[in-house]
Amino acid sequence: MKKSLLLVGALVLSSAAVKAQTIFSEDFNAATTLPAGWVLHNVDGFTPATNVNFVTDAWVVRADATTPANGNICTSTSWYTPAGAANDWIVTPAITVPGTGTYNLIFDAQAPDANYADGYQVYVSTTGTAVADFTAPAISTVAAATATWTPQSVSLAAYAGQTIYIAIVNNSNDMFLLNIDNVVVKQLQANDANLTGVTLNRYSATSTNNTLSAAIKNDGSTTITSVTLNWNDGTDHSQVISTNIASGATATVNHPTAVTYASVVEKNIVVTITAVNAGVDPNTANNGGSAKFNTLSSLPAKRVVFEEGTGTWCGFCVRGAVAMEYMTFNHSDFIGIAVHNGDPMTVTEYDANMNLSGFPGANVDRSILGMDVSNTSFEQAYNDRKNMPVPAALTAVVSGTGSTVVVDASATFKTVFANANYRLALAIVEDSVQGTTSGYDQHNYYNGGTYGALTDVNGLDYTVLPATIPHDTYKFNHVARAIVGGFAGVASSVPTSIADGAVATHTFNYTIPAGSNRAYMRAVLMLVDQDNGEIVNGTEVDLSAAGLNTISTDEFNMNVYPNPTTDVVNVSFKANNADYSVSLTDLAGKVVLANEYTNLNGTQTIQLPVNNVKAGSYLVTITSNNITYTQHVVIK
């Protein structure tokens, strides 16, 4: 996302030894200003671009909004107006390196926008903190930091027995932001492996092999050529695994014994490194991890929820609107919610809990956080999530007329839990929102093509639209109107003890405010895992059928394809010895096509010819016994 407004932050260091072999450590959480003893040099003297004008010096201390658990971090920028190369220095206080032992500088680095990744250099001075004191060549040069926080390790062996100052320099040209955190100088020991993460599918079909992977960082001074890795579910599965991990590097190893069970079970898998290079690890405190694992009796349908941060003030945010329409047009199991910030469509509770690093930005299932907003990145994130097994199928039944909305929500579980920690959550979304004041004027940085082409799936070309699109000519889709019952969901809406086939239910009540149009609104039901805050599954149901019960389509096995389409819409569903009506309506409620079918049973596929229907977004609705099932379809 070139240059989205990140609320990231800052470096605060202290020179207290926090554990054995550590002679310098700082996690930047003591204050929101640069710690005493640190020195900044803003050599370039350039003016940061408007979207990063919070970087008021060479480096600034700020909270890490993308990963709040990190606390504060330190940030510099190379995005200037006019463009130019950064030359921004941050220099540590004096550090005395012991004369014996192997000592390394270790810190975490991140360039949050992979498309505009800042790099850096690391210098050492033995004389002082001025730029002129750093006369020796850089001891480390990184052309582009990674988009995720990644530990860096640089040897200080050449400075044994000396007092030094260390400088980290952002030398990038017209990129974005560079973040650093957790700066440490410590002695390395031989064969010190750090199990930094365990990856295992959270849910799986029975009798299916699942690979358990361990991320191992070499915190030691010698190359790791083998680890003995054990996973235990009540029985040890220990294996010597060959690898090659240089000092300071991280690698992923796969355990050769698959995790698989023939029946529906709940397991806590305990993972331990028990040996390194066929010998003893001197620091076993960081050798353990665990992973939860459940098998499923059947595989519920999975839908992917995208919560996109946007605002009328944000000129790059029109890219998010284009990406949301692209996904809606191409994937019927995509659910999009546009969470507004700083404009009249803002829902304060929703916006405050998004924790986005910048705008536009998006959270996908609240698992992929602060991601770039584009058709390509949305497609990739969707593909990463769409085939994940999930523990429950969701159904939402809507009733009520006028402004009264009642949503009877249910989650049918396909596994067992002894101590589940889930909640049901509900968002209300509205399409075709058009404001009446200047607060709805949408800023558009793509005017004139300065930032390249931007055209949505309906052919709307943002390069020819004005730099500020007037509110009376622009409509907003996917607008979050409410988060009912709280962002994390309703407490106790899902029981803690769950048997296979158990159904958790909750009733949500919502009143449509004046100014909103029920015909353009829908409810998004989500199952939220409270252990990690992730959305496990979602479904959506339209509120448009006033006076009828409207039910989400997942349990009805309704499918509309191809979507988008040009000539024909295939509507498949599971009938149950009943009469059905199938209709196609536009978003204003006008019926375009309608057919009646009597005494249907079993799986049905009905074709609706649409070759003479005007291009646009429509609703396919199946009605039977005063209950409706609805899905969107796009006709090109």
Structure description:
The relative contact order is 0.09. Strands 25, 26, 31, 34, 35, 36, 37, 38 and 39 form a 9-stranded mixed sheet that branches. A hairpin with a 3-residue loop joins strand 23 and strand 24 (368-371). The protein starts with 21 loop residues before the first strand and ends with a strand. Helix 1 packs across helix 3. The protein contains 3 helices and 39 strands.
Number of beta strands: 39
What's the oligomerization state? single chain
Query: Could you tell me how far the N terminus lies from the C terminus, measured between alpha carbons in angstroms?
Result: 28 Å
Shape: globular
User: Percent of residues in helical segments?
Assistant: under 10%
Mean pLDDT: 91
Question: Class of the largest domain in CATH?
Answer: Mainly Beta
Biggest β-sheet: count, sense, barrel? 9 strands, mixed
Query: How many discrete structural domains?
Result: 4
**Which strand-content bin applies to the residues?**
35-45%
Count the DSSP helices: 3
The CATH superfamily title of the largest domain: Immunoglobulins
Unreliable stretches covering 5 or more consecutive residues? 1-20
Output the CATH topology of the largest domain.
Answer: Immunoglobulin-like
